[in-house]
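Q: what sequence does this backbone want?
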């Protein structure tokens, strides 16, 4: 007898009419036509059952702070950083925890059960690190939260950042971050990459670095990051986030850069919503999208995970906690419209990001944690198109959130009484 049995589900790889049996918080059976009984049975009715959504790049210490102390009038990255600098001295542990835990409530409702958050360590008080470590403890039963020690004002540019970063790591923040393009010179940026990779190597930690978040094609710190990854033996443990300068680089240079990144076994984490909002601000027309080269990165075998980055904070006045919004924007901005490309984008908000974060027991195979999301959609492409309701959000075999199906009632002579958007999926192969 199973604790939970999900019947008649469609899986992201295209398998249909499959059942999943759960015992003790783990998946113990994945097959068609399971006849065993269960303490709880969910009929998926052919809808898509997926592993949970995973956000590999977020700023939980800043979330839900929009308007504090004022709005970002220019809408630029630099004004956002300046605004955060004004807010930072007033931050309290209690306020940070309250906003972050409220955001996690929203995340869970969207089927987002794993987040990697960058934590600003530029303030030597480290109230941000203290607060986010407490948030990690509070949400651990229902959400996996990884924390990155992030010197927002620059590892060298901010005089106290180097010491504060080391202390944050000592406190339990587990990933080394950086922002080389925000240092005062290209040389300082390159030095910061080397210093931060050395710290990660010495401590046995992962690296996730804001890298080249600019329109400047000469901002090439990702090249240095790849080289230092190999030098310090960090292959498979390093991610470059944003990488927007790659959008402006010439094709010849990128043709050399991508193999270097692949050799270093680096991952790439674009953030389509905020990259599209913040980049290209100095352009008139033609106006650059500012989003890194997602199709080319994928074609080079580089793992690509898509992040939300910000929700209602000094940098981004929008956001919903829904990784399918992120996938939807990525698909449009990259023009990745084929069936295979849509599935690749869906992977970038699920399995790819789980791989980048090193999540254990993630997936829909026997032995994996019973963490799943039932969507009101028929396949991954439809999930991106519709951004549908999360009918069930399951953590370790228990339903922790659910939303009623979206159904619209019609009063039209000779037409159906209701409309279910998930019934509009194409009936032919993509």
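A:
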């Amino acid at each position: 007898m199973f604790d939970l049995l999900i019947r008649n589900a469609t899986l992201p790889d295209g398998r249909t009419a499959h059942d999943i049996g759960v015992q003790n918080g783990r998946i113990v059976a994945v097959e068609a036509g399971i006849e065993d009984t269960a303490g709880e049975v969910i009929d998926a009715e052919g809808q898509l059952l997926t592993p949970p959504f995973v956000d590999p790049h977020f700023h939980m210490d800043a979330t839900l702070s929009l308007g504090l102390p004022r709005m970002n009038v220019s809408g630029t990255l630099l004004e956002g950083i300046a605004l955060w600098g004004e807010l930072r001295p007033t931050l309290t542990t209690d306020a940070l925890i309250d906003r972050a835990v409220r955001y996690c409530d929203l995340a869970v409702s969207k089927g987002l059960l794993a987040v990697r958050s960058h934590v600003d360590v530029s303030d030597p008080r480290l109230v941000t690190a203290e607060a986010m470590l407490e948030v990690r403890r509070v949400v651990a039963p229902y959400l996996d939260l990884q924390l990155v020690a992030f010197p927002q004002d620059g590892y060298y540019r901010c005089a106290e950042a180097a010491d504060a970063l080391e202390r944050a790591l000592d406190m339990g923040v587990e990933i080394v971050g950086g922002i080389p393009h925000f240092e005062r010179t290209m040389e300082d940026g390159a030095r910061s990459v080397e210093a931060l990779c050395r710290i990660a190597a010495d401590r046995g930690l992962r690296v996730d670095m804001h890298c080249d978040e600019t329109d400047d094609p000469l901002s090439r710190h990702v090249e240095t990051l790849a080289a230092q990854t190999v030098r310090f033996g960090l292959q498979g443990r390093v991610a470059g986030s944003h990488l927007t300068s790659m959008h402006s680089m010439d094709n010849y240079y990128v043709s050399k850069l991508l193999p270097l990144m692949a050799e270093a076994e680096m991952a790439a984490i674009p953030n389509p919503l905020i990259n599209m909002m913040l980049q290209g601000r100095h352009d008139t027309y033609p106006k650059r999208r500012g989003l890194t080269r997602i199709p080319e990165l994928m074609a080079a075998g580089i793992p690509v995970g898509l992040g939300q980055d910000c929700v209602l904070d000094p940098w981004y006045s929008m956001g919903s906690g829904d990784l399918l919004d992120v996938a939807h924007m990525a698909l449009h901005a990259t023009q990745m419209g084929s069936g295979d490309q849509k599935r690749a984008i869906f992977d970038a908000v699920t399995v790819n990001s789980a791989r980048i974060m090193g999540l254990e027991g993630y997936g829909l195979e026997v032995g994996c944690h019973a963490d799943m999301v039932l969507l009101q959609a028929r396949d991954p492409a439809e999930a991106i198109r519709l951004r549908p309701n999360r009918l069930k959000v399951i953590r370790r075999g228990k339903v922790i959130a659910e939303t009623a199906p979206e159904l619209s009632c019609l009063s039209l002579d000779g037409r159906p009484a209701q409309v279910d958007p998930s019934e509009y999926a194409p009936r032919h192969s993509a």
